[in-house]
Design brief:
Length: 281
């Protein structure tokens, strides 16, 4: 039985073990998938112990997605563009890094929620590992413009520089958001509300119109404050990150096992237990 795991800090909240167990049962693939707590400083040693115990593939969540870059012998194109890794595959004794966050988000928004992303003026809040993971895929999906803001402005600047599309991707200061006009898509990729804390920032309502879709990449309790702001601001749609979580997991599963599971029944199963969800991977 092949062994897989998700690494993060904290990690007890993760739904990934349930998701991959469901995928394995659906496809008839026997696997072990667990959650392992590791911080940035301890990630390398934790992965070594994991391999020694038979580990062959791993997912990464906060705060490890950028730290894992240095541990990879090879990076897939998506991880290179994002500067962020959420999927590790052991190949010839070395880690190969990839990123399925962006394709997972786009699949959820376009397939499950029926959004046409083409031509949308988009605001991305947060430039950490998950923000980096989704930004290239949003551009590939045809958005018209991407404005990135981060509480540490230098990280927003670094992400925009890495994207290499000066005509469509720009960084702005958080304090200047009320001067940026309105957006067709607002995505919260921050961890401000993780663990159920209230958002530690305020967003102007002038960012949205009746056609705006607001998406929080968190799910469960962590998504409540941002989605409440979205509804109070009159957004057309307020979407949490549960669907993205399932879709990015399916992307990792496909990389490891060579087939893509049916995500709809797994998403439906988790949505039934929405009250017990706490935070995003």
């Amino acid at each position: 039985m092949s062994r897989y795991a998700v690494f993060g800090h904290p990690i007890a909240h993760s739904l990934s073990p349930r998701i991959h167990a469901a995928f394995g049962e659906q496809t008839g693939i026997e696997l072990s998938y667990t959650a392992i707590d590791a911080d940035v400083a301890g990630l390398g040693a934790a992965l070594q112990r994991f391999v020694a115990d038979g580990g062959v593939g791993a997912n990464l969540t906060l705060p490890l997605k950028q730290a894992a870059l240095a541990l990879c012998a090879q990076l897939g194109e998506r991880a290179q563009r994002a500067g962020s890794v959420n999927t590790l595959s052991l190949r010839d004794g070395q880690w190969h890094g990839d990123n399925t966050d962006g394709t997972g988000l786009v699949r959820d928004l376009t397939g499950r929620h029926g959004l046409d992303l083409r031509g949308r003026r988009t605001l991305l809040l947060g430039a950490g590992g998950v923000g980096r993971g989704v930004a290239p895929a949003l551009l590939d999906a045809g958005i018209a413009e991407l404005i990135v803001v981060n509480r540490t402005p230098e990280r927003a600047d670094a992400l925009v520089d890495a994207l290499g599309e000066p005509g469509r991707a720009h960084s702005r200061y958080w304090a200047d958001l009320d001067q940026q006009g309105d957006f067709d898509l607002v995505i919260n990729a921050t961890s401000a509300a993780r663990g159920g804390d209230v958002l530690d920032f305020k967003l102007p309502t002038l960012l949205t119109t009746a056609r705006t879709a607001a998406v929080d990449l968190n799910y469960g309790e962590a998504a409540i404050p941002f989605l409440a702001w979205a509804r109070a601001s009159g957004c057309r749609a307020a979407i949490d990150g549960l669907g993205m979580l399932v879709e990015q997991a399916a992307g990792s599963f496909e990389l490891w096992h060579g087939l893509r599971p049916d995500t709809d029944p797994v998403y439906a199963m988790l949505r039934q237990h929405d009250a017990s969800l706490h935070s995003a991977d």
